């Protein structure tokens, strides 16, 4: 257990340049406190002390502003930066070396029992305010941009932005995915804006139509001059 705690704290120094020393992280990072509370609650949940697990989870939520259901499954190297407003549902499954920022929701879209929350692969980064909803799957090395609303699967090594979330980068080896570099807030250098891209396409279409209209007008003028002559 202590080795797991050390590992959970060690990853913070790799991903947060504001972290200065072990004691500061241990006492001043709500993400660490929430994760410690979750580890205990999850153990109690798995040993059928479910009421106590929920009470402990509720106390952790009260102290940290982070709600993690005891039934969720979380791998090692998990980091919640800032933390306030994070919600992780009961059937959520989270892989190794995953990072969440404040305001992230891993939620369900149905009242039916069973699998209703997301599954996250390894090395996933979810930006501030993003919502990942339903029993969908995010592959390895996926990046979710801040405030995105994701309701569909995302393939490995992809970046998703927008409402609803759309893949703006597919599988590629020329970016930071899988190279060990960390993208804060789910941002990738040169990330395109889907709305700006759509507007740009419309403007290109308008310019093409404008050029075509000028060609037709010139052709019409030539025909008129030919008839007069």
What does this entry look like structurally?
This protein has 229 residues and is α/β, with parallel strands linked by helices. The protein has two domains: 2-190, UDP N-Acetylglucosamine Acyltransferase, domain 1; 193-229. 38% of the residues lie in helices and 15% in strands. The strands form three sheets. A six-stranded mixed beta sheet has the order 3-6-9-12-14-15. A five-stranded parallel beta sheet has the order 1-4-7-10-13. A four-stranded parallel beta sheet has the order 2-5-8-11, with no helix packed on it. Strand 14 (159-161) and strand 15 form a beta hairpin. Residues 172-180 have low confidence and may be disordered.
In short:
The protein has 5 helices and 15 strands. It has helices spanning 2-15, 22-28, 30-46, 50-64, 194-228, and strands at 67-68, 73-74, 79-80, 87-88, 93-94, 99-100, 105-107, 119-120, 125-126, 131-133, 137-138, 143-144, 149-150, 159-161, 166-169. The protein starts with a helix and ends with a helix.
Low-pLDDT parts are: 172-180
What structural class results from the helix and strand content? Answer: alpha/beta
Strand order of the largest sheet: 3-6-9-12-14-15
Distance between the termini: 97 Å
Query: Mean pLDDT score, rounded?
Result: 83
Overall structural domain count: 2
CATH class of the largest domain: Mainly Beta
DSSP strand (E) fraction?
15-25%
Oligomeric grouping of the chains: single chain
Q: What does the overall shape look like?
A: elongated
> C-alpha Rg, in Å?
24 Å
DSSP summary, beta strand count = 15
CATH topology-level fold name of the largest domain: UDP N-Acetylglucosamine Acyltransferase, domain 1
H/E series: HHHHEEEEEEEEEEEEEEEH
């Amino acid at each position: 257990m202590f080795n797991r705690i050390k590992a959970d704290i060690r990853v913070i120094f790799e991903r947060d340049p504001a972290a200065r020393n072990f004691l500061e992280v241990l006492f001043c990072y709500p993400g660490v406190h929430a994760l410690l509370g979750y580890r205990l609650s999850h153990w109690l949940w798995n040993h059928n002390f479910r009421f106590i697990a929920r009470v402990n989870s509720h106390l952790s939520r009260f102290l940290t502003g982070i709600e993690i259901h005891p039934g969720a499954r979380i791998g090692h190297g998990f980091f919640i930066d800032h933390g306030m407003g994070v919600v992780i549902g009961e059937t959520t499954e989270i892989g190794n070396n995953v990072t969440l920022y404040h305001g992230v929701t891993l939620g369900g879209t149905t009242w039916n029992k069973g699998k209703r929350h997301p599954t996250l692969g390894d090395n996933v980064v979810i930006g501030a305010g993003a919502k990942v909803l339903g029993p969908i799957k995010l592959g390895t090395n996926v990046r979710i941009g801040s405030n995105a609303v994701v309701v569909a699967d995302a393939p490995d090594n992809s970046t998703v932005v927008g409402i609803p979330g759309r893949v703006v980068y597919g599988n590629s080896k020329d970016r930071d995915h899988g190279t060990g570099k960390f993208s804060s807030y789910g941002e990738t250098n040169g990330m395109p804006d889907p709305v700006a891209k759509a507007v740009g396409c419309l403007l290109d279409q308008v310019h093409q139509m404008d050029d075509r209209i000028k060609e037709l007008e010139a052709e019409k003028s030539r025909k008129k001059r030919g008839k007069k002559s």
